[in-house]
Specification:
This protein has helices spanning 30-33, 40-55, 81-91, 93-101, 110-119, 127-130, 133-136, 148-159, 163-169, 191-205, 223-230, 242-254, 292-301, 318-324, 330-334, 344-354, 366-382, 384-389, 394-413, and strands spanning 2-4, 23-25, 60-63, 68-69, 75-78, 105-106, 213-217, 234-239, 261-265, 275-281, 303-315, 357-364, 417-425. It is an alpha/beta fold. The chain has 2 domains: 2-138, no CATH class; 144-429, Vaccinia Virus protein VP39 (Rossmann fold, 3-Layer(aba) Sandwich). The chain has a 7-stranded mixed β-sheet with strand order 9-8-7-10-11-13-12, sandwiched between helices. The protein has a 4-stranded mixed β-sheet with strand order 4-3-5-6. It has a two-stranded antiparallel ribbon with strand order 1-2. Strand 7, helix 11 (223-230) and strand 8 (234-239) form a beta-alpha-beta unit. The radius of gyration is 23 Å and the shape is globular. The termini are far apart.
Amino acid sequence: MSVSISPSARPAGGSPLSAVTHPVDAARWPDVARLPKASPVRTAVARGIVRHALAGLPLTVTFRDGRRLGTGGPVLRVHDPAALYRRVGAGGLIGFGESYMAGEWTAEDLVGVLTVLAGNAATLVPPALQRLRGVWEVKQPHARRNTVEGSRDNISHHYDLSNDLFSLFLDDTLTYSSAVFRGFPATYDLLPAAQHRKIDRLLDLAEVREGSEVLEIGTGWGELAIRAAARGARVTTVTLSVEQRELAMRRIADAGFQDRVTVLLRDYRKVEGTYDAVVSVEMIEAVGEEFWPEYFATLERRLVPGGRIALQAITMPHDRLWASRNTYTWIQKYVFPGGLIPSVTAVENTCAAHTGLAVTRDDGFGVHYAETLRLWRARFEARAEEVEALGFDATFRRMWSFYLAYSEAGFRSGYLDVRQFQLTGRTETGRGTP
């Protein structure tokens, strides 16, 4: 079933939707096609919070009736304020994102608007209401826990969408993590070299060389495994994505390394053996706080004495992690179910409390991720017709653009960072064993 959102369309509750003409499939996008139920009190509180927050930000917020808020800056156009307040009242920031998907607010400079919001995330909600967060926030669904079965479903939700979809905006290396550039601004043709630069830094951190036995947790589409095999290493790499595994195996064979790389459809907790090096790129974000101790303990068990672990991870400030770790977010609902971004402190504390591992290198390069995401988003939006031809509707394309812009804004504001960690046994650092 599809509904067409237009000025005359009225969902249950009677509020007019915005002048967006793309169809919304109510079966696929039920929470976008219809306004949620929200009490008048929650909607009124949301209206006050939204208007108070926007009034003090360096934005220019415009409404249909000519009213304006903000102190000046990127323009956020609110087409249907009643619908926006109702969604925020019912779902908080999930509702804010769904309101964008529904076309109830728009922004020509979406990254600019979201960067302002991300940079002020800690103060958008008044302190008195922040203390009531446990009553107000939407809780993470129990079904999205990253158990062995749950992880498989969560990973499939994103990574099994379509290899062809990812191929439309990623470069030829099919690397879906932050690149490392030589300078800014970068251009799309520089992405392959920048991705190889990132991979080589990780392999150097893990001291991968000829003859190394390497475990990779999170195969992606196989580029890191190919790069390690080219050094003369033997690689075992694991993934939970059926589609990624099929394409990764073809790419590895095409590169001539099928005799050096084994690609397993396996949970990281089910891996056997020991390795000289363990590498994992932006996979910890899919582990979940509940399973961080098991994740790091698994890395330690798979490492030979004197071996090295190299991780690349998106991180957030520890205070923001602690405040929001139980909240169900828009990105979890629509893009990465079960996902949670750790902090540097969380990585260090988990290693110290549950393993004999220590962080011996920690390098951040968040601005490089912002640039990577900018290039991906520009490519994705430029190839909208090809995305549509793959069967992804206008609501999906709007959601995906919002996800890429939302992520870029996190790195541009400094709310998010991306880091490369080297982990070693504590005895190597002189700290003793736990």
